[in-house]
Write a structure and sequence with these properties.
About 60% of the residues lie in helices and about 0% in strands. It is an all-alpha fold. The protein has helices at about 5-20, 30-40, 45-55, 65-70, 70-75, 85-100, 105-110, 115-120, 130-140, 150-155, 165-175, 180-200. The protein binds a DNA duplex (13 and 12 nucleotides) through helix 3, helix 6, helix 9, helix 10 and helix 12.
DNA sequence: CACCAGGCAAGTA
DNA sequence: TACTTGCATGGT
């Protein structure tokens, strides 16, 4: 039986050799990345991209501009990203935290130590573990491993974890097996999403041509 | 037409 | 605690 650590390292090598560097996350600023992290919840990135473009084109992609926007106007602007009423509220919840606790200072917010930042993000209604960790890794650039539906599906389908494994368990598997390196965690998560989009879909997986070959069971 | 996409919280028993 | 459901657009 090969150790988990070796399987995690070997999986990374396989993915990197197959796909090369992914250059994530799409976003010009940490603020843009943070907004994208909320908008992409259970949603295709191309839809999110449209919403971000609208905000950008109308000069609304800033802490001040979004904070000043009425909720229903904000919802209207982000409509293509789906769940727009919900996500508008979630964005304002998040900006509310940054306003209250960090006096609206984004740099201070992103520089906050990883554990405090994660606790603060999880205290916001509408920010769960994946969105929090995406913001911490891709916006604040602290080394936390992001787990998503693709990560769970790929690892369970290939027999590395059980189907019932939860977020924290999967996150620990990666973080106990790898050095705490922001660039590495960035690349690894991006590679898993690349594999998921291309080969390991929810239904009809193209496992025969997958770089990981056949699932073990 | 059915199903999916880089989740999360609230409701039910 | 362990399921289930609502939220919603745009692509395949």
């Amino acid at each position: 039986m090969i150790s988990y650590t070796k399987r995690v390292l070997s999986l990374y090598k396989t993915l990197f050799d197959a796909f090369g560097p992914q250059r994530w996350w799409p976003g010009d600023t940490p603020f843009e990345v943070m907004v994208g992290a909320v908008l992409t919840q259970n949603t295709n990135w191309t839809n999110v991209s449209r919403a971000i473009d609208t905000l950008k084109n109308e000069g609304l992609l800033s802490f001040e501009a979004i904070s000043a926007l009425p909720l229903d106007t904000l919802a209207e602007k982000i409509r293509p990203s789906g769940y727009y009423n919900l996500k508008a509220k979630r964005l304002t919840n998040l900006l509310g935290l940054i306003h209250r606790k960090y006096d609206g200072d984004l740099s201070l917010f992103f520089q906050t130590d990883q554990d405090t930042l994660r606790q603060d993000l999880l205290s916001v209604k509408g920010i769960g573990p994946e969105t929090a960790d995406s913001i911490i890794l891709y916006a604040a650039k602290h080394p936390v491993f992001v787990v998503d539906a693709y990560t769970h599906r790929i690892l369970s389908r290939h027999g590395i974890i059980g189907e019932e494994s939860d977020y924290h368990e999967i996150q620990d598997l990666f973080m106990d097996s790898l050095p705490a390196d922001t660039a590495l965690f960035n690349e690894y998560h991006a590679l898993l999403v690349r594999l998921g989009k291309e080969f390991c879909k929810k239904t009809n997986p193209r496992c025969s041509s997958c770089p990981l070959k056949e699932p073990e069971e």
